[in-house]
Amino acid sequence: MTTSKDDFRFFHRLRVRWAEVDMQKIVFNAHYLMYFDTAVADYWRALALPYEEAMAQLQGDLYVKKATVEFHASARMDDQLEIGMKCGRIGTSSMTFSGAIFRAEQMLITCELVYVFADPATQTSRPVPQALRDILQGFEAGQAMVQVRTGTWAELGADAGALRTRVFVEEQQIPAELEWDAADATAVHAVAYNGLGQPLATGRLLQPAPGVAQIGRMAVDKVLRGSGVGQQVLLALVAAAAARGDREVLLHAQRSAEGFYRRLGFAGRGEAFVEAGIPHLEMAITLPLARP
């Protein structure tokens, strides 16, 4: 039986809410399955797989065959919990996940979830695709789940353009004529891909003045936001700016993303302004970056 945090690479963290506590002032037993199910959803993000799109490409879906929970101790209101989850076995058409809920170092609950990969139309089992098998095994072995490629619009424009259309034009309702400009043709572009070759995030790098780089058009697939994939794209573009000798990198950050850029060392300057109907703030960082 898995009992140690060291057995897990992945953790989902949450705080027990009032609505999840029963009359005994402990977490109602059915909520633990919800905790594990929530952790599994976050596990797919750690694999850099937007679940719905990934399963559509793999031509299948996952169905729960078996779910068992063993209770060792109770969680209480306001406890901060860590739910460890891992894929321990992949059979011909099934995969077994084991999980454990910890409060600090104390193990409270364990579970086993067995999923079957199946045709969504008939719900009949199918072999687990080799691509999915490789991603799961690679993650548990400590491999990186994302690859960032940099290149020209001719090389990456199809994938970068599709992401930008979904995020800016469809989601944020920015007019298409404001999204596309001639700068794409000369910019350095970066696109992050998962193990299925699906594009997850993009950005571009311009040079508005000698020694000055400008990052823009940063877009991340909605499902993967908060997973770190946007950070990888940003750092790849900063590295490209440093490699060509730029002294400064600036960007126009949407105010909703300001915290993301600040955590990566960018500092705001000047007053906020509106661009394409969205509040922005100019932010910058000096190169070369200080080594930690």
In oligomeric terms, what are we looking at?
single chain
CATH architect. name of the largest domain:
3-Layer(aba) Sandwich
Output the number of helix runs: 7
Radius of gyration: 22 Å
CATH topology of the largest domain: Aminopeptidase
Give me the strand/helix succession: EHHEEEEHEHHEEEHEHEEE
Terminal CA distance? 39 Å
Proportion of beta-strand residues: 35-45%
Low-confidence stretches: none
- CATH homologous superfamily title of the largest domain: Gcn5-related N-acetyltransferase (GNAT)
Structural class: alpha+beta
Work out the number of β strands: 13
Tally the structural domains: 2
How would you sum up this structure, described in words?
This protein starts with 9 loop residues before the first strand and ends in a 6-residue tail after the last strand. The chain has 7 helices and 13 strands. It has 2 domains: 5-140, Roll (Thiol Ester Dehydrase, Chain A), CATH 3.10.129.10; 147-286, Gcn5-related N-acetyltransferase (GNAT) (Aminopeptidase). The model has no long low-confidence stretch (mean pLDDT 94). The longest helix has 19 residues, at 153-171. Strand 9 (212-220), helix 6 (229-243) and strand 10 (248-254) form a beta-alpha-beta unit. Strands 6, 7, 8, 9, 10, 11, 12 and 13 form an 8-stranded mixed beta sheet that branches. The protein has helices at residues 30-46, 51-58, 130-140, 153-171, 176-179, 229-243, 258-263, and strands spanning 10-15, 61-71, 80-90, 94-103, 106-118, 147-151, 188-193, 199-209, 212-220, 248-254, 267-268, 273-275, 278-286. The protein has 292 residues and is α+β, with helices and mostly antiparallel strands.
